[in-house]
Design a protein that fits this description.
The chain contains 11 helices and 2 strands; from the N terminus they run ααααββααααααα. It is mostly helical. It has a two-stranded antiparallel sheet.
């Protein structure tokens, strides 16, 4: 079996790495270095889509307000609790919004409150939009521009089963497999000559 797969191991590994890169790119256009600059990006976040985004669902509660003394957005007494946690963001938007919520939760919350204030939408709608924004800001802004031109609106609050399954599959199965391949290539004498038997021989 080792002989059967040994010759094609390089090709298989390269294909898997290319697939991983393509999938991660689909979830996020941001590199790890950009995660560290979230604070600056959020401070500069001005809902740049022209004209400004509009809410999708009716919402009659008092929106958050900006405190000039603290330079922070603060929820109103009517602002509801977060409808879902970091894992909800992970399933909806992939790794980027998840990392923002885990590493810089205050920055994420400020972006949500600001979006609520500027669009008078619910917290669920704001979080869905910010998950999409942190996942891929350019695509999100483009979608908002298209909506302003009369195109159908996207419901970012919806947890899409297909996307959730894709995220979980990569997190539980594909990423550990690729990590195992990378470890064997870098840390063993086999190098690029690893076989399928090597990969599954723990």
């Amino acid at each position: 079996m080792a002989n059967l797969f040994g010759g094609s191991s390089r090709c298989c590994i390269l294909v898997f790495f290319a697939s991983m890169i393509a999938t991660i790119s689909a979830f996020s256009s941001r590199s790890s270095s950009s995660i560290s600059s979230i604070s600056t990006r959020t401070q500069q976040f001005q809902l740049s889509a022209v004209p400004s985004p509009e809410r999708m669902f009716d919402y009659n509660k008092k929106p958050p307000s900006f405190n000039k003394q603290t330079s922070l957005w603060e929820p109103s007494p009517e602002t509801e609790d977060s409808p879902y946690g970091p894992w909800g963001s992970f399933l909806r938007g992939g790794p980027s919004p998840f990392l923002v919520r885990v590493l810089q939760p205050s920055e994420y919350e400020q972006a949500v409150f600001k979006y609520m204030a500027q669009t008078s939408c619910s917290r669920a709608e704001a979080q869905g939009n910010m998950d999409a924004f942190f996942n891929n800001a350019a695509d999100w802004a483009y979608q908002k521009s298209e909506e302003a031109r009369g195109r159908p609106k996207v419901d970012y609050t919806q947890l899409k089963l297909k996307d959730a399954i894709l995220v979980v599959t990569w997190a539980v199965f594909v990423t550990p497999f690729l990590g195992r391949c990378a470890y064997l290539i870098a840390a063993t004498d086999a190098g690029w000559a690893i076989t399928v038997d090597d990969i599954f021989n723990f």
